[in-house]
Amino acid sequence: xxxxxxxxxxxxxxxxxxxxxxxxxxxxxxxxxxxxxxxxxxxxxxxxxxxxxxxxxxxxxxxxxxxxxxxxxxxxxxxxxxxxxxxxxxxxxxxxxxxxxxxxxxxxxxxxxxxxxxxxxxxxxxxxxxxxxxxxxxxxxxxxxxxxxxxxxxxxxxxxxxxxxxxx
Length: 168
Description:
Immunoglobulin-like; disordered N terminus; 5-stranded antiparallel sheet; mainly beta
C-alpha cells in the first residue's frame, strides 16, 4: 500500500483489499488498526467498562474438536454493533493459526452481519497478543437470545465453535 507523503500522525483510509465501507487507521509508525468497536478493543482504548461488557468465560461451551483453546470470552454492545473478544491458547503441538472468517448464528438460524475477524498477529507460542475480535452490525432486537460463534482459518479446516454466546 502506498502512503501519501502528507501522512500526519493519524489518517483514515479505505484500503483497496477491503470493502469500501471498511475504514482503517494508519499511524505514523505504519501500524494499521481497525476502526469502530473492533478498533477500540484492538488498540486498548476501551476497557471492559467502556462499552457494556458481559463476561462469558464460564458460561460458553467449547466444541471438543476446536483447533484452539479459548481461555476468556467477553461480549460487548454499542449502539449499533456487538463484538465478541476471545483470548486464545495454543493446543500443544498445533501449527500457527489465524482467524479469517467468522459467523454468529442466533435463534432460528438467524445470522448476523459479521465483519472480518481482527487478530493482531498469528496465534503461535511466541505471540504476545492472543486475542481475536469478532464484530457484527446489529441492533439490540437482532441480538436477543443465544448465539453460536464459528471461526475458521484460511483453509477452513481448523475452526473454533462456541455455543451460548449472549450479548449485554
